[in-house]
Every structure is written in structure tokens, then in C-alpha cells.
Amino acid sequence: MTEPAVRVRWLVGTVHSVRSETATARSIVLDVPGWPGHLAGQHVDLRLTAPDGYQAVRSYSLAAPADGQRVELTVQLIEDGEVSPYLVDVVLPTEQVELRGPVGGWFSWDPDRPGPVLLVAGGSGIVPLMAMVRARAAAASTAPFTLVYSVRGPAQRYYAEELDRVDGLDLRMVHTREAGPNGRPPGRIGPADLDVALGARVYVCGPTGFVDAAIALLLAAGHDAADIRSERFGGQP
């Protein structure tokens, strides 16, 4: 007999702290009593309710691994959005929002997995991949990790100081519009940026065009399509 599906219910989260990542992005840490835990790479649905009863729901990637009832999101401002302007510019500690999750599971990484990992991020696509980087550190995993992170310029980089001090992470920054301190000329991601040994589990996240271009480069380099997992959204890095 088939087991009944577990219904994911809405939980009330209280904002614990907020932290700016860039001029238009903010990390929000929430305490969510009853949170069931999650895997790095999963996401949540977040619901806001206006005084007149109008509700808006958006999905956001989890930016950190499971830590009891604590949940961390990083939100990029969308100028004409209904939810992100409030989360980036308004919400303060002690305020409450509703969360439902975790959602997804295919695009996730388990610290018990020993093999090498290649993370490829475009813009705000770094968020679920940062959860994987943090999960690796928290578990003291020795799995080889390479992160290729593409942004327009240094000012658009999330988690800048933290990424620079992660032990054992091969960090490769790609700046598409403005040169960064690593000496790489501005330009889109190319074969040399993705040069890692075949057989790595690959996670690609970012705007649709970026993800399609990265996957094409990976396949051309000989990576098996079965080793590549992707998530995509609108816009350009």
C-alpha cells in the first residue's frame, strides 16, 4: 500500500537578523519553530499577507544548511516586485513571515557524498550553491569543491568575505562587465573557467541564458549529462 504524501504546512518565522550582501541584496535569518530541516540546495515558499488580506507567495533558495529551527535566505531586489522590496528594504528583526518547505530535493548536495563537486553560479544563483559550500564546511567534508561564480563586477558579489576564507574551496571569479582583482579580463564564462576533471557532480544555477551556456560548455568538455543538475530563472548575470 502506498504511503500517503506528507503535506507541507505553513510555519511562522520570526526575523532574527538581517545583513546586506550588496546594494540590492540582503540575507535574512529567521527562527522557524517546527522547521523539519532541509538539504543544501532546497528552497522554501515565503508568504506575505497585507492588512487587507491580499497574499503574495514567492520561492527563495535556502542560503545555509540545516541548523535546528534557524533558516537563512538571501533575496535580490526586483524593482517592480511584490515581495522582494519588502524583504530587502523594509523587514526588521522581530517581524514575522510565513514559510513552507523545504521544497525540492533533486538539486541538493549531501555531505555524505564523497566525490568532487563543481558549482557554477550566475548572479543570485550563488544562493543555493552557498548552502552547499557552507554544508561542506559544517560537516568538515574533504570532498573537492570548485566554485565558478559569474557576476557583472566585484560590487555584485554575494558573501564576498566569507568565500575568500573558505578552506579547501577552489574559487574562480568571472566578472562579465568590470574587471576584478584576480586579473581576469571582463568576459563571459568560458571553457578555461570550467576546467575540472570529468566525473564531478555539477550544479549550475543562474539566469536561463547563463545556465544554457554553461551546460553547453560542460557537455562539450566531455561531462556526462547525468552528472549535471541545474536550476534557472529569468534575467542576466
TrEMBL record:
GO terms for molecular function: 2 iron, 2 sulfur cluster binding; oxidoreductase activity. InterPro entries: Cbr1-like_FAD-bd_dom, FAD-bd_FR_type, FNR_nucleotide-bd, MRET, OxRdtase_FAD/NAD-bd, Riboflavin_synthase-like_b-brl. Signal peptide: none annotated. The keyword Iron applies. Residues 8-109 form the FAD-binding FR-type domain. Keywords: 2Fe-2S, Iron, Iron-sulfur, Metal-binding. Coiled coil: none annotated. Its cofactor is FAD. PANTHER family: NADH OXIDOREDUCTASE HCR (PTHR47354), PROTEIN RFBI (PTHR47354:SF5). This is Oxidoreductase. It comes from Actinophytocola xinjiangensis. The lineage of its organism: Bacteria, Bacillati, Actinomycetota, Actinomycetes, Pseudonocardiales.
